[in-house]
Amino acid sequence: MFSWDKISFRLGKMTTTYMSNAIQTLQSSILSILRADTTSLTIAYADGTTGTIKLSADVKILDGIPVDMLKGIGFPYIIVHTPEESTERLTFSKHKTEFTVHIEILDRRESNVRILSDEVKNALDSNQNTTKGSGYTLFGRRIRTNINSVSLPNEEKMKPIWHMNMFFTYLWSG
Questions:
Q1: In CATH terms, is domain 6-173 a member of 3.30.70.100?
Q2: Cα separation of 168 and 174, whole Å?
Q3: What are the structural domain ranges in the chain?
Q4: pLDDT for the residue 89
Q5: How sure is the predictor about 133, in pLDDT bands with cuts at 50, 70 and 90?
Q6: Are 65 and 83 in contact (CB under 8 A)?
Q7: Residue-level pLDDT at 145
Q8: 3-state helix, strand, coil in the chain (%, to 5)
Q9: Is the pLDDT reported for residue 155 higher than 50?
C-alpha cells in the first residue's frame, strides 16, 4: 500500500493542498499492482501451442523500452509510461488534477495482447484502494485503447509485433 504525501500551503485563511511526488508514486503504484498480479492466463505461442503465464512471473513489466524488444525478442512486454498531469483550478483553494497513464502491451500474437490488456484492466480496477489516501481519493477509469501491428527488422524477414495502447485517467480533487 502506497501513501500519497500531501503538501499544504497557507494563503491567508485558506489552505491549498497538493500531492508531493504524485507522478512517481502513481507510476510506482501501478507497476506494483501489475507485478503482484498472480492470475493464471492461457496464451498461445508462435509455434501454435498454448501455455499458462502470470503477469507477476512471466511478463516483463517495465517503465521504459527495453533493448530486447527493439531486437524483437523477449515478448510479451507491458510498459507503464510516466503519467501526464493536468490541473484545473476549481476555486481559490480547490483544484482538480488528472493524471493520464499510458500503458503499452506488446506481443507476437494479437490474441495474447487482448488477453493481457483485459488482465491489466482487471488488476487496476480491482486494486482501487491502492490509490486512496487520507482526505482525498484517486480513482481510475479506463478512457481508451487501440491495437495495431508494427514490424521490427529481423535477419530473415520482417516479423509483426502486436501493440496495444491503453490510457487510464486518475482524478484527484483537493
A1: no
A2: 20
A3: 6-173
A4: 78
A5: low
A6: no
A7: 78
A8: 25, 45, 30
A9: no
